[in-house]
Amino acid sequence: MPARRFAPPRSIRAGLPFLAALALSVLLAACATTPYTGRSQLILVSTGQEAKLGADAAKEVLSKEKMSTDKAKIERVRRIGERIAAASEVEQAWEFHVVDNDEIVNAFALPGGKVFVYTGLMRLARSDDELAAVIGHEVAHVTLRHGAERMSQSMALGLGQQLAATLYGGSSAGAQAAMVAFGIGANVGVLLPYSRIHEYEADHVGLLYMAKAGYEPGAALDFWERMLAHSEESGGKRPPEFLSTHPATANRMEAIREMLPEARSHLPRKGQAAPGAPGAAASPAPPAAPAGTL
Fold first, then answer.
1. What is the mean pLDDT of residues 49-75?
2. 241: closest CA among 185, 200, 204?
3. Lowest mean pLDDT: which of 195-204, 229-238, 244-253?
4. What mean pLDDT do residues 62-91 have?
5. Which of left, alpha, beta for 192 (phi over 0: left; psi -120 to 50: alpha)?
6. pLDDT at residue 113 tops 70
7. 50, 95, 138, 149: which one is catalytic?
8. What does the pLDDT read at residue 59?
9. pTM over 0.85
10. What would the 3-class secondary structure string for the chain be?
11. How far is 133 from 219, CA to CA, in rounded Å?
């Protein structure tokens, strides 16, 4: 009796195009590398798409949040932000905004160079060096294209979920179980760890930027010590680091201590003006290199 040739089930055959498309997307983006750290990235979003999404999101934030009218606070954030942006040598449509909310201790950056700092955080950042540590971190998120990377991961995982459902028979109970399992596994196994990698990476590169701009990187430890005390006083509870998008504060501070010697090596030499500082020679920043292609 002749051996029977194995043929994959129809559901698997139907899913192969999805798998091929996902593999092709990953290969096309394999050349993406982060500056300074040299980490490989999955980037499926163009710089133009990224900037458009960031600009749209910034408009929404500006329309919904109460923006500060305090000229001193606005000038302080813009002055520090522009110096750090100049030190990054990455051309973006940089904007630095102050959100008038003393109850929120936070700052965030949107793709394309839109940075927002809450007045609640500014109350804890007592020196310009400490505020520079925060803004340097946010600028690094932009230059390292973390927003585009997160979007790309979601796109790839979405394809993976579709493939899992296809392989298990579309709308069957098995498909639903596969979707749930894949979603949970992807969230903990890929998205959350990558988010923590992004935070450590933004800390690292942000310290380099603030030092190049002439700010003392050691102030980052002073700020995080104050943040830790504030969190303990307010009774804030954090999930375990395994299930958190941000590193535990103690781990973060230890990593920053290890980064300080490298960061301090980027401080301007005596008599040398920092980029963007008064007296520094103006020079056009080179455009950001595309991190990948579709």
1. 94
2. 200
3. 229-238
4. 97
5. alpha
6. yes
7. 138
8. 94
9. no
10. CCCCCCCCCHHHHHHHHHHHHHHHHHHHCCCCECCCCCCECCCCCCHHHHHHHHHHHHHHHHHHCCECCCHHHHHHHHHHHHHHHHHHCCECCCEEEEECCCCCCCEEEECCCEEEEEHHHHCCCCCHHHHHHHHHHHHHHHHCCHHHHHHHHHHHHHHHHHHHHHHCCCCCHHHHHHHHHHHHHHHHHHHHHHHHHHHHHHHHHHHHHHHHCCCCCCHHHHHHHHHHHHHHHCCCCCCCHHHCCCCCHHHHHHHHHHHHHHHHCCCCCCCCCCCCCCCCCCCCCCECCCCCCC
11. 7
Beta-ladder partners of 96: 115
d(C-alpha 270, C-alpha 13), whole Å: 66
**Mean pLDDT of the 265-279 span:** 78
Is residue 138 flagged as an active site residue? yes
Q: What are the angstrom distances between the C-alpha of 146 and each of 109, 113, 126, 183?
A: 10, 12, 28, 21
70 vs 8: CA distance, rounded Å? 67
The residues near 160 (Cβ < 8 Å, ≥ 6 apart) are 22, 182, 186
The two structure tokens encoding residue 196: 């923590």
